[in-house]
Write a structure and sequence with these properties.
This protein is α+β, with helices and mostly antiparallel strands and about 70 residues long. It has one domain. It has one helix and three strands. It is elongated and about 50 Å long.
Length: about 70
């Protein structure tokens, strides 16, 4: 977390979250907001949405393979 322009105020609180997830690799999300809590909440929510999308894509692919007959 860091403050972009110091004491001048404004929408300048930046939060960067880095996650290392099996199957998704490294995920880095950055958010900028007017306060620390909002920047952190937004970054974590964006990271969670990304990981959920990746997980769903993997689940859909596995389900498709189970439904399709094997090629002989």
């Amino acid at each position: 977390m860091w403050d972009e322009n110091g004491p001048r105020g404004g929408v300048d609180k930046r939060c960067q979250v880095a996650l290392h997830a099996e199957g998704a690799g490294a995920v880095v999300v950055t958010s900028v907001a007017s306060d620390w809590r909002a920047a952190l909440n937004d970054a974590l929510a964006r990271a969670a949405r990304f990981l959920l999308r990746q997980w769903r894509r993997g689940s859909d692919t596995r389900r498709m393979r189970q439904r399709l007959p094997e090629a002989v």
